[in-house]
């Protein structure tokens, strides 16, 4: 399987300490199977931080999400209640229940895979958190959104399964 990471740097080695917290699946290194999605992210990062858009290309085994030696959370391709709770908790700077299975602040999951929560979904999350809509209404609202996929790597043990094979601009 080929995975892409869009940014403004040619990443020579993945340093998890440089990853930002409060992302969909927690602090980690995010990739996608979709080149176009990675190119959009590279353009966005370069626009915000300067530099040239670069897509780092990685190879990993096709059975990555079935590895017994890794703790993996796979949400599939469609938003679900568990996925929504997981994303909301990981984005919430005041969430403190690190042991909760719907949170990855403690990197309990080596790899997490699932849809990306775009800006439209963020609005739905906010409405839910402000008790304006129910969890069922949140999921129903997300069901009709086009989703894209992401694979996030949260531990050194997981990063070892990525082999850099090139860059694209």
Structure description:
The chain has 169 residues and is α+β, with helices and mostly antiparallel strands. It has one domain. The chain is 30% helix and 20% strand. It is built from 5 helices and 7 strands. The protein has helices spanning 35-49, 81-91, 119-129, 135-143, 156-159, and strands at 2-7, 29-31, 54-59, 72-74, 111-115, 149-153, 163-168. It has a 4-stranded mixed beta sheet with strand order 2-6-5-4. The longest helix is centred in the N-terminal third of the chain and has 15 residues, at 35-49. It is globular. The mean pLDDT is 90.
Give structural attributes:
about 170 residues; alpha+beta; four-stranded mixed sheet; three-stranded antiparallel sheet; 5 helices; 7 strands; about 30% helix; about 20% strand; globular
What is the element layout, followed by pairings?
Elements: E1 2-7, E2 29-31, H1 35-49, E3 54-59, E4 72-74, H2 81-91, E5 111-115, H3 119-129, H4 135-143, E6 149-153, H5 156-159, E7 163-168
Parallel strand pairs: 4-5
Antiparallel strand pairs: 1-3, 2-6, 3-7, 5-6
Helix pairs in contact: 3-4
